[in-house]
Write a structure and sequence with these properties.
Layout (H helix, E strand, L loop, with lengths): L18 E4 L7 H7 L8 E7 L3 H13 L3 E7 L8 H14 L7 E5 L1 H13 L6 E5 L2 H7 L7 E4 L5 E6 L7 E4 L9 H18 L1 H15 L5 H22 L14 H9 L7 H18 L7 H11 L12 H8 L11 E7 L2 E6 L3 H10 L5
Parallel strand pairs: 1-8, 2-3, 2-4, 4-5, 5-8
Antiparallel strand pairs: 6-7, 9-10
Helix pairs in contact: 3-4, 5-6, 5-8, 6-7, 6-8, 6-10, 7-8, 9-10, 9-12, 10-11, 10-13
The structure holds nicotinamide-adenine-dinucleotide (NAD).
Nicotinamide-adenine-dinucleotide (NAD) binds next to helix 4, helix 5, helix 6 and helix 10.
């Protein structure tokens, strides 16, 4: 303590390390993997929060946990953005307390990004924090949502708008089991949506990563014998990119903002009442808008817009809106984005593969150029 009575309390900047098991069959080995990651399972209650869409994976997770002597209780969640709200988290919390959760009770989420975000939010707040294990079952969650500790719920706002991810915190999972065999039942549209975040990782990482994605594009999407192996490689490369960045910047003070490439546009698309786009689809459109905005700002090197659009199209992702929406309406929705700083907007823009620029308070012409590039084509 100083004479003036000042005391500094230093906290470590991160609370947990995350072990990632990225291999086929990892969901069926979750029990032993939890033990290896230091989570006791034998004779313990394990709370499993399951995405109704991923029910096929439940049995694998449950039998692996029971084989290790765990007592497993399930709570099913219907994965919709409207359901990713505090009221749903409260129902999970009530259920967990009634099941007899204590501070050592692990919460295992089995599902897509919605269920991972919801379960993470509960694990971060219930009893001031329970151990979190994630078994992502969508490509998007497997390459993005399961890492880096961001947890969130949406907030319903006036006029039917949904304030996306406005409440939440940082709770890295102790363990993530990224098992591409869980994608077997995932509808093709959802699989493709996850590829948008892979494209984002390619731009953030650099030329070699982006070129590999371009050369693997057919194998990744053709449904043939090589698809699973191609997806497995893709998932590992994406995890490496995100893991490296969130390790260096866990609380998004700098470099981690690069992972929001295209997301200011995407979140505005998703905030529209009646939005029908998947998160990954909105990100795909947002990546094209960000590339065009970057070009207007004089940042993007030649060919960035065309290369972004062409790869997304090859992967079967949307590159424009499908209905006419006034640019002013989309612009107004951007102000809801939680990444706003003060009164200015923040755009994350591609310059070239591996070079990303964060622009605070961009000129309106730059934002308008982004929206014009993705306006619905007649
Ligand atoms: N926390 C983060 O860092 C982070 C990062 C990116 C995205 N997110 C969040 O992730 C969410 C989007 O996640 P998503 O794209 O995984 O979508 P999602 O969670 O909405 O899942 C998409 C659909 O797939 C179904 N599903 C899940 N697994 C399945 C399977 N194996 N087989 C068949 N159906 C299955 C779900 O029931 C749902 O209908 C958004 O809410 C977004 O905000 C969070």
């Amino acid at each position: 303590m100083t004479d003036a009575g000042t005391i500094d309390i230093a906290f470590p900047t991160t609370t947990h390390a995350t072990r990632v098991e990225a291999s086929r069959g990892a969901a069926s080995r979750i029990g032993p993997a939890m033990v290896e990651a230091g989570l006791s399972v034998e004779g313990r209650l394990v709370l499993a929060v399951g995405d109704s869409g991923a029910a096929e994976v439940f049995e694998r997770v449950e039998s692996s946990l029971r084989d290790r002597g765990a007592d497993v209780a399930w709570h099913r969640v219907e994965a919709t953005e409207a359901n990713k709200v505090q009221a749903t988290a409260d129902r999970i919390i009530e259920w967990a307390i009634e099941q007899g959760a204590d501070r050592g009770t692990p919460i295992v989420a089995v599902g897509g990004g919605i269920v991972c975000d919801l379960a993470g939010h509960v694990a971060g707040t219930l009893l001031r924090g329970l151990p979190l294990v994630l078994v992502p079952t969508t490509l998007l969650a497997m390459v993005d949502a399961a890492y880096g500790g961001k947890t969130a719920v949406n907030v319903p706002l006036s006029g039917g708008r949904l304030g996306r991810n406005l409440v939440g915190g940082f709770l890295p999972a102790t363990l993530v089991a990224a098992d591409v065999s869980t994608l077997r039942t995932l509808p093709e549209r959802d699989l493709r949506a996850g590829l948008a975040e892979c494209v984002k990782h390619g731009w953030v990482d650099g030329e070699a990563h982006l070129a590999r994605l371009e050369s693997d594009a057919d194998a990744i999407t053709d449904g043939g014998a090589s698809q699973t192996a191609a997806l497995e490689g893709l998932v590992r490369r994406s995890i490496e990119v995100k893991a490296a960045i969130v390790t260096r910047d866990p609380f998004e003070q700098g470099e981690r903002r690069h992972l929001n490439l295209g997301h200011t546009f995407a979140h505005a698309i998703e905030a529209r009442p009646g939005n029908r786009w998947r998160h990954g689809e909105a990100v795909a459109i947002g990546l094209v808008a960000a590339a065009a905005a970057s070009s207007e700002a004089g940042l993007a090197e030649a060919g960035v817009v065309e290369r972004t659009r062409s790869l997304l199209e090859r992967l079967g992702l949307p590159v424009a809106l499908d209905e006419a929406v006034p640019v002013e309406a989309l612009r107004a929705l951007m102000d809801l984005d939680k990444k706003r700083k003060g009164r200015s907007l923040r755009l994350v823009l591609p310059v070239r593969p591996g070079a990303i620029e964060v622009v605070e308070g961009p000129p309106e012409a730059v934002i308008a150029a982004g929206w014009s590039a993705v306006a619905a084509r007649p």
